[in-house]
Amino acid sequence: MEKIGDIAVPFIICSIILFGLYRGVDVFEAFKEGVKEGALSLWAAAPSLAGLVIGVSILSASGFFDIISQVLTPVFSLAGIPSEVLPLALIRPVSGSGANAVLSSILGEYGADSLIGRTASVMAGSTETTFYTIAVYYGAVGIRRTRYTAAAALTADICGMISACIFTRLLL
Amino acid sequence: MLGYIWAFMIVGGVVFSFITGKSDGISASVMQGADKAIQLIISIAGSMCLWTGIMNIADRSGLSEIISRMLSPVLRILMPELKENKKACSAVCANVTANLLGLGNAATPLGIKAMKELRRLNTSTECPDNTMIMFVVINTASLQLIPTTAAALRQAAGSSDPYSILPAVWISSLIALAAGITAAKLFGKASEKKRHILIMQRS
Prior knowledge:
The complex is a heterodimer. By secondary structure, chain A is an all-alpha fold. Chain A is 80% helix and 0% strand. Chain A has one domain (47-171). Chain B contains 8 helices and no strands. Chain B has helices at residues 2-20, 26-60, 63-78, 86-101, 104-121, 130-140, 148-156, 166-202. The radius of gyration of chain B is 22 Å and the shape is globular. Chain B has a domain at 61-197.
């Protein structure tokens, strides 16, 4: 199964370029334009990512995550979520940069190709910054009450996280 | 909100380190953290920009429009109100497509445009209707063809195969999306039933 990822990436890149050529697009111009846009948005996100990486490294050096894990492990192990990825599960719905900082610290500590590292990567890749999204979209149209939005979105997050743990084990 | 979380990480971390007796490592971890932060940004920049470049080709060549048109019937089943509002429908489809291709910069403005169109149909001033909630829930379940950030972070951490997570990410995202849609439909029905009972009681 993990070979799919290997094949998918070059396949997707080649098909997009070929389709662009077929449609008569100046593919290299379009590529450069996209790279520039990506660099600008990474540049815009860099300060918050830097700040949160510092925050996460202080918090994990303090032993905070160990204690939180000990407290919450019984609940999460019921759902099959290993305690090492708990910090990620907690920050993911709130902050994207925070989740990236936590994921990077987990990958550094346990190794990117370990089961923990893979589980954390799948978890981060298959969920979103739920509360941020809700705030931005409702905020833009001036809606204050959100009814059952958060409940439904968090149901999605929890199911995504649990299945990330299951399918990482099954597929990788 | 993030300000409080960040302040808690720093201040809480320092206070905690005294309780756990790990305060010796704190000043080192501050410096290391700052170092790591800069290294991380530089090491993910390459693969992140590769994907924004490739996906921009997809966008320019009209591939996103094709995908958007293919998604339209599915999204109209999930949000029946879209059938009556063409503008909202095309904004919703374009937003979901941008998310799918990882065009983050395009996705948010399109999503806000879609929300504004949906708002016009909504008679209530304060509350979102079921269509708006379904749209936001679909947006909070990340459906992305290539999880570029996670893969870039794996690459930066020295993974031998950063994209090996793709199949598991696809399946988990789909399950999350299905769970979100089901939950939104169920909660929507439950809240309508409640409203009916309230109206019945009042009359």
